[in-house]
Write a structure and sequence with these properties.
- By secondary structure, this protein is an all-beta fold.
- The chain is built from no helices and 24 strands.
- The strands form 6 sheets. The chain has a 4-stranded antiparallel sheet, with no helix packed on it.
- A hairpin with a 5-residue loop joins strand 12 and strand 13.
- It starts with a strand and ends with a strand.
């Protein structure tokens, strides 16, 4: 199994993590603050704070586009050769043509141009008509709300509207995905990973970055978002065997904060 792991802010970058049994190798592919990462046919899309990169299957950068500083990209999801990228500071999701990285349009949230909801990650269902979003609040400026004001919402891509709130009273949620009918996400500030309403894993620090396979759960942990400083919360990746939950492996990373995790073969 191979993983692409993005790390943001100080000592950030994009890593290739490859497992062979219980041994692994780690290689840094890109330097700099890296956020979302997604599969694009046999290529990859990596999103930096203010840039979009397309990588080939050898993980060489073959295309890139710089954005203005006000955008601040976060999560990315690719559907029908288009990249949907969260533009957190603008309260929008930009839609980009991956053939030339031109911006085709946007999904906007009121008010536009301000980081009100702190939308961070997204997942588009296979049919392409529904999207899941993780955000710090649905109403009011997130910095003025209680920490547990976070939500996971369902968005109707055909009607361009929020269809409903799936999960609420969350603490800084990130990394929403769907796997076999269930919604998984990080309840980051309480160090949790949730499957629908159930907590299925608790880490030692801020959780962000999540991938689910039939056998393993991969969870990112950051060491610069400490809520309980006495706990051991080094930056790295947990690999949890979903069949044998006591079988847990932690891989430290030479960065500070994990953002995204993408499995590939």
């Amino acid at each position: 199994m191979k993983l692409l792991v993005s790390c943001v802010n100080e000592k950030g970058g994009l890593y290739k993590l490859e497992w062979n049994g219980d041994t692994y190798s780690l290689k840094k592919i890109i330097e700099g603050s890296c956020r979302g990462v997604a599969r694009y046919n046999d290529h990859f899309v990596a999103v930096m704070d203010h840039a979009i990169l397309v990588l080939n299957k050898s993980l060489d950068t073959i295309r890139g586009k710089q954005a203005h500083a006000e955008v601040e990209y976060h999560g990315v999801f690719v559907h029908n050769d288009k990249a949907y990228i969260v533009e957190t500071k603008l309260n929008t999701i930009g839609i980009y043509d991956l053939s030339d990285l031109s911006r085709m349009g946007e999904l906007s949230f009121d008010p536009v141009g301000q980081d009100v909801n702190h939308i961070n990650d997204l997942y588009i269902d296979d049919q392409g008509d529904r999207m899941l979003l993780s955000m710090f609040t649905l109403k009011g400026l997130w910095r003025n709300q209680k920490e547990n004001s976070g939500v996971i919402v369902k968005y109707d891509l055909k009607g361009n509207t929020i269809e409903g709130v799936l999960f609420q009273h969350l603490s800084r949620p990130h990394s929403v995905i769907r796997h076999k009918g269930h919604v998984y996400y990080c309840n980051s500030a309480t160090f949790e990973v949730k499957k629908d309403n159930d907590t299925i894993f608790t880490a030692d620090g801020f959780t962000r970055g999540l991938a689910v396979t039939d056998r393993y759960l991969y969870v990112g942990q950051s060491d610069s978002r400490l809520i309980v400083p006495a706990r051991n919360s080094a930056c790295g990746i947990y690999r949890i065997d979903r069949n044998e939950k006591r079988d847990k492996l932690f891989i430290p990373l030479p960065s500070k904060e994990v953002y995204g995790i993408l499995p590939y073969h």
